From TrEMBL:
Subcellular location: Cell membrane
Principal cellular location given in the protein's record: membrane
Keywords, ordered alphabetically: Cell membrane, Membrane, Transmembrane, Transmembrane helix
Superkingdom: Bacteria
Topology term for the membrane: Multi-pass membrane protein
Listed name of the protein: Quinol oxidase
Source organism phylogeny: Bacteria, Bacillati, Actinomycetota, Actinomycetes, Micrococcales
GO cellular component terms given for this protein: plasma membrane
The keyword Cytoplasm is annotated on this UniProt entry: no
Transmembrane spans: 19-37, 57-80, 87-105, 117-138
Family matches, as InterPro entries: DoxX, DoxX-like_oxidoreductase
Family: Belongs to the DoxX family.
């Protein structure tokens, strides 16, 4: 029996980590989905393309719709916990690109147009890519254990 020195059961460590990963996935997924929605339907693809071109993003007319789709689909997949590792890795890379092309020249603080916010999103997505989706993910319910561990 696992007990602490004061006779209370020791809580398995994975339970806390899995719950933390669920929270990270849900929040990051909603944020990425919202940003994809914003690019596609509020700014519109032509508007997002023009903004990207103004920032100096290469191939802005291609990058804007691709990112809108990736953020919409990727956000939804993170919320569900499906393909979490590759999706999160791609989202982290996209945020690093956003930092380089859109924010780095404006310093750190987000209110000045800096990279603070996209750096946090890149770090959260990177952490999910490294750690995987945790136990509370749809992939854990439908995929064999080894496959779920690899792609989440």
């Amino acid at each position: 029996m696992n007990t602490a020195t004061h006779d209370r059961p020791v809580r398995p460590r994975f339970a806390d980590a899995d719950l933390a990963l669920l929270v990270l996935r849900l929040v990051a997924g909603v944020v990425f989905f919202a940003h994809g929605f914003q690019k596609a339907f509020i700014f519109t693809i032509p508007g997002a393309s023009a903004a990207f071109a103004e920032m100096g993003v290469p191939f802005a007319a291609v990058v804007a719709p691709v990112l809108a789709i990736v953020e919409l689909a990727g956000g939804a997949l993170l919320v569900l916990g499906v393909l979490s590792r590759p999706v999160a890795a791609f989202l982290a890379l996209s945020m690093l690109g956003a930092a380089v092309f859109g924010h780095l020249g404006s310093g750190f603080w987000v209110e000045d147009g800096g990279y603070e916010y996209v750096a946090v999103l890149a770090a959260v997505a990177g952490a999910i890519a490294i750690a995987g989706p945790g136990r509370y993910a749809l992939s854990r319910a439908v995929l064999p254990e080894r496959a779920a561990a690899l792609v989440g």
